[in-house]
Specification:
The protein is α/β, with parallel strands linked by helices and 263 residues long. It is 44% helix and 14% strand. Bound molecules: NADP nicotinamide-adenine-dinucleotide phosphate.
């Protein structure tokens, strides 16, 4: 890439978002990374750690701390990125949470439902709305500008998990948000993609590691291994670099074949 493009990545402090940020830094992007915390208590992860790693890869990294479910924060987030870089070429809606406690859906509480949906879908939907308006404006000024938007959903968009219904529902909604944004923005030259990760080794899956180790060894994942944040990062970087220019609305599985229907 000649001039470094700019990617705004939510949830970039650890796990999949960190993997996306570092893969994109490697591929020549500058990064604005958002998360609720600048650093973890042990300083082993967090936006400042990712900034250091990205800078070692010669990328600029702007950390922007804030809660994506707070719609008032979105303006500050976009303003800070625009002040620093003057453009947003790629928005990656990655920030997401699992329920604090896995419970049978007959026990799901309204509080957990609201928490999960307000971060996983409401936050992403309205941040995308703001970013899309900005991208349309920038495109009118510069026809060569080719922005794109990526949603990180999950195989849970289509698979049922009885102990985290609110998570699956949020991901199904996010998948449809990607689909409709792709439709709405195609005429403006803004491509929108959905990446559907499977079982990825991060903090989110730590508490169920043993269960997933067993499922993976039993063939639940045809490729028989955990996914890594880098697997997802590489897919996002390929989309962001324009390698799938005629595929807006595409759903890319990064799940080791969990999408294969078998019997
Ligand atoms: P993770 O390790 O728990 O990391 C979550 C990231 O999101 C962190 O950077 C966290 O920041 C950020 N975040 C959480 N709530 C936020 C909020 N309200 N505002 C801004 N940032 C927030 O999770 P992960 O496994 O990397 O998951 C990343 C995305 O991939 C999620 O959308 C998840 O649903 C999806 N996904 C994960 C898997 C998997 O197996 N791990 C599979 C499919 C899809 P803080 O550090 O500040 O908390």
């Amino acid at each position: 890439m000649d001039k470094r493009k700019v990617a705004l990545i939510t949830g970039a402090s650890r796990g999949i978002g960190r993997g996306i940020a570092l893969e994109m830094a490697k591929k020549g992007f500058n990064i604005a990374g958002n998360a609720t915390r600048l650093s973890s208590p042990d300083n082993k992860s967090g936006l400042l750690e990712v900034k250091k790693r990205a800078e070692e890869l010669e990328a600029e990294f702007l950390p922007v701390q804030g809660d994506i479910s707070d719609l008032d924060f979105h303006e500050k987030l976009i303003d800070e990125v625009m002040q620093k870089f003057g453009v947003i070429d790629v928005l990656v809606n990655n920030a997401g949470v699992a329920p604090l406690e896995r419970k049978d859906m007959l026990e799901t509480t309204p509080e957990s439902f609201d928490r999960v949906l307000s971060i996983n879908i409401r936050g992403a939907f309205f941040l995308t709305q703001k970013a899309a308006r900005l991208m349309i404006e920038l495109k009118q000024k510069s026809p060569d500008y080719r922005p794109c938007i990526v949603f990180i959903s999950s195989v849970s968009a289509v698979l049922s998990s009885l102990s985290r219904a609110e998570y699956c529902i949020s991901k199904a909604a996010l998948s449809q948000a990607a689909h409709i944004y792709a439709h709405r923005l195609a005429g403006h030259g803004i491509n929108v993609y959905e990446i559907r990760p499977g079982i990825i080794e991060t903090d989110m899956t730590k508490s169920v590691k043993k269960k997933y180790d067993r499922l993976i060894s039993e063939g639940f994942v045809p490729q028989k291994r955990w996914g890594t944040p880098e697997d997802v990062g590489k897919a996002v970087a390929a989309l962001a670099r324009g390698e799938f220019a005629y595929s807006t609305g595409a759903v890319i599985e990064v799940s080791g074949g969990m999408n294969i229907r078998m019997f």
